[in-house]
């Protein structure tokens, strides 16, 4: 069958299992959009307000489903607008295929209108990228892009297609659906060594990261933990891998982690890191992190081994397979005393209790939110204090229910991501928890949520300041509040209405339940402007560069 | 930790942009490149990049593992010191005013280099040998007037049965 490059592209996406893409048209992708017009029934296109929103939406779609997110943008500014979204996906290992049009081959290198070297620009923030020079290579390039994005440690791949390639015609040969590349596995000797260390350990601790979720290893993790009586803490990326009410779940580890999770790292004699990368937000001081413990590092990416914190044993491979192998090889273990020590500590020093009084404490709000939403909801966040408070206090029940830019820390991520999540899960409640700083960055995507008829709830914790930066100014910069009192005069209720959404305001604690109930039932996108105290701070905090024993509880 | 100098041999896809991907990785992660050379191999599908780099053991290990993740990098070999056979080429254009042509040519020959006369008192000197010998030879040439120097990075193979194709 003879097809042009645009038809081949769309058909190849369908062949690779894509049913939804997020994008924005433009000059260099006119042919692609023309081909899309014929395939509207097979592939849904979500038109965002801005290409950044499309990239974040594809990312949110991918994180919440485990499938590959796909975004499409035109050349030049369209392509550069994707960059923050691609970098966000790269840092958090999200499988993403970004497709950009480029100017025609004979215009490349001439500083043509809307020309940019997007392959050059995205080189350090993609697993790989392609410029398609020949229409005959297009279908195989699409297949390879999906293979790379999903194999081993997932991540973004970009395909740049000059406009003449989207028009060129050739014989189309259907490529089979991509297959993930085989994964390396640790040797029996390495496994035996790790098992021996596990059997020796008196005070073991699991530090679970995002890799547990992307390996679909949450069930195996829980089985392991129960079988060996090993408590679990999670990095921010690992949140939602363990149900909140599991007795040996200690919560988040690191800078804003729970007191007990950080206490556990100081006292453990064995730390098993699974799909985690010891980032500076977890191991502020790389030399001091769990220095009295042996460390077993399980990761699919060999280059993560001893990158930040040197480990004693490395198991490079698939977390699900390795945990399964542990579960088969090990007898039940008993660490009652260690678990009791931790549970007692947790009872004595927990996270800060929500404050009393009429004013809204976001912590209390987040507890209430879980009560109202149940276990099925997906929580998306932006970046800042609201993100950390959500990470600390929301009670996650199912994997992939916490969607947040943890590595790059992209303010403005949430609105696009929430659109992607809600598009993928129309029947599940989706709540974006954001701040007035982050929301101002990409609130244009409310327009998309309204036109796509996506009933998502945007909860803005509005303190009129850039809370997290201000908190650091309080703690480390002698309260010199340089440019963090943003004091916008935006009326979020009117703004919601202007977008064609519903707007609500919450000032008092007593308003939380009735307003939230109404918002969740209204069936429309809505913004809730929730006024909170500008001086509220996120605690505990381990100051940057410090170790778990330098923790400041703040209560 | 002890810094060591290491010679890495990378087998990479032979198409444009690959060198950029490799050097980009070094600069974005703050790794050092002492010298680099690249050329086609016996198989026109592949090029070989020889990189001389330095760092402590952990960094060297990271460099190898990060390079291995690049889609275009097919194989990596760390050429052991004891098996290292490495050559560089240097071209030096030099002005010789106080030595006759014969005398200069003899000087060059004694130093195991070659020279060609370009114009009166102006010579192209070429040498292909190890890094230190080239450094020493350039020092000697300082007694004349060096007009310009072009120098390649090292290219290396293991003086053993080991190849880049071996499973690392």
Walk me through the structure:
The complex is a heterodimer of chains A (555) and B (168). By secondary structure, chain A is an alpha/beta fold. Chain A folds into three domains: 170 residues, 3-Layer(aba) Sandwich (Rossmann fold); 161 residues, Rossmann fold (3-Layer(aba) Sandwich), CATH 3.40.50.1220; 170 residues, Thiamin diphosphate (ThDP)-binding fold, Pyr/PP domains (Rossmann fold, 3-Layer(aba) Sandwich), CATH 3.40.50.970. Helix content of chain A is 38%, strand content 17%. Chain A contains 21 helices and 20 strands. In chain A, the strands form four sheets. Chain A has a six-stranded parallel β-sheet with strand order 3-2-4-5-7-6, with helices on both faces. A six-stranded parallel β-sheet of chain A has the order 11-10-9-12-13-14, sandwiched between helices. In chain A, strand 2, helix 2 and strand 3 form a beta-alpha-beta unit. The longest helix of chain A is centred in the N-terminal third of the chain and has 15 residues. Chain A is globular, with a radius of gyration of 24 Å. By secondary structure, chain B is α+β, with helices and mostly antiparallel strands. Chain B folds into two domains: 76 residues, ACT domain (Alpha-Beta Plaits, 2-Layer Sandwich), CATH 3.30.70; 71 residues, Alpha-Beta Plaits (2-Layer Sandwich). In chain B, 27% of the residues lie in helices and 42% in strands. Chain B has four helices and nine strands. In chain B, the strands form two sheets. In chain B, strands 5, 6, 7, 8 and 9 form a five-stranded antiparallel β-sheet that branches. In chain B, strand 6 and strand 7 form a beta hairpin. Chain B is elongated and about 55 Å long. Chain B starts with a strand and ends in a 10-residue tail after the last strand. Classes of the chains: A alpha/beta (555), B alpha+beta (168). Chains A and B meet through loops of A and helix 1 and helix 2 of B.
